Amino acid sequence: MSIQQRLIALRRDRDLTQHEMADAIGVHVNQIRRYEAGSTQPSLEVLKKIAVAMSITIDSLVFDDNERGPDEQLKLQFEAISHLTSDEKQIVKELLDGMIIKYQSRRWDSAREVASTE
To answer: Rounded to two decimals, what is the model's pTM?
Structure first.
């Protein structure tokens, strides 16, 4: 779903007119019309205003459900980690940091190899 579709759905779910939504977030109603028509995209500042005024996250405006964040198996593992002691959580964090650095290093090396062969 696009940002424009999310804005329309959000406004309709809240039973707001375009003018009421514009007033709530502090922009001109013509901007709301442009956003909903898809002729322009809201700036980060406007996305922040929408999120605050509508009590939602910016992520919910920008990303589809489950587009960001861990898959279900990792969610369960993170939930289990939340019950560990602070020291145990720190160990898990350090392990994850190490794995992420290792992954990024492999990606950078691969990208360098591709660039050097071009």
So the answer is: 0.60
